[in-house]
Amino acid sequence: xxxxxxxxxxxxxxxxxxxxxxxxxxxxxxxxxxxxxxxxxxxxxxxxxxxxxxxxxxxxxxxxxxxxxxxxxxxxxxxxxxxxxxxxxxxxxxxxxxxxxxxxxxxxxxxxxxxxxxxxxxxxxxxxxxxxxxxxxxxxxxxxxxxxxxxxxxxxxxxxxxxxxxxxxxxxxxxxxxxxxxxxxxxxxxxxxxxxxxxxxxxxxxxxxxxxxxxxxxxxxxxxxxxxxxxxxxxxxxxxxxxxxxxxxxxxxxxxxxxxxxxxxxxxxxxxxxxxxxxxxxxxxxxxxxxxxxxxxxxxxxxxxxxxxxxxxxxxxxxxxxxxxxxxxxxxxxxxxxxxxxxxxxxxxxxxxxxxxxxx
Length: 360
Ligand SMILES: *Cc1c(COP(=O)(O)O)cnc(C)c1O
Prior knowledge:
Blueprint lengths: L4 E2 L9 H9 L19 H18 L5 E6 L2 H13 L4 E6 L2 H13 L1 E7 L23 E4 L1 E2 L4 E2 L11 E4 L16 E5 L10 E6 L17 H6 L9 H16 L2 H22 L4 E2 L10 E5 L3 H13 L2 E2 L10 E4 L6 H17 L2
Parallel strand pairs: 1-13, 3-4, 3-5, 5-8, 8-9
Antiparallel strand pairs: 2-10, 6-7, 9-10, 11-12, 12-14
Helix pairs in contact: 1-6, 2-6, 3-4, 7-9
The site of pyridoxal-5'-phosphate has 12 residues, from helix 3.
């Protein structure tokens, strides 16, 4: 068995330990004679799995009791609609446009009300996070929306925007559990887990409980209303059982390896290896302004499309997979999520140095 170094932006690398454990439990989950895939979501065994997953996530993120944790479906993309449907009482909200995922959420919100662009970094192809210290937020806005880590462009909010007292909603899909966050600063955090936590098919939503009500936009489907799932502890209908089980294992792995403070240190150390090299290289350069750099997604280019293609091809042959940049931006992107070991990044940089020596 040979595992590659997988730099995919998502679905992405998972901890080997978790995959092995899941493999061991595949045919017979802890003596119950069946796989977690095959068991009732109403069984006692499964109830323990989902309850433990929630409890471990609460411990990891220090989630206060007045926040509900929900395991949902429909991807992060369905939350683009769920957010306005559940929160737009005045039918007006502010959006900070820092890339394609923010733009998609913005477009979705426009279906339901007035979505206002508060700031944007489109002028420089989303290569930075705009100044959010004094945004044109008005009193009638229901919330302020950010995409906290921009998976495609490789930027991250290092400081949360000044929302002038308005509710903050954050799509954390690609930075979820990569470092500690102060949950109390947010009204809503949600994340598709296929970036940093588990298999595609699960979205974790952490929502302050006063925001979970029956007072939603007219026509909101039952399944999109947060209250439906919150009241049912994520078991209103059949949840993505197996995906939640894997997420639970990843939560335990994160706890066992020191929690989010330690994780942040490791992620900073990993990202530094790559950024330091990009800063000194004469061939490769990072595309993001230094103060906005993501710890999770690192886009870079040579400035020559043919050389980019050659690099991606040779890297693949050497066991570094999925380094091609997003189809809309080109170049390269290394996603170095929690489960990417530090050796993977070190070896990638060695390979890049070698490529640079041979191609300059
Ligand atoms: C991948 C991604 C999405 C879309 O997630 P789906 O689960 O495919 O809907 C949304 N936001 C961010 C930041 C992402 O990285």
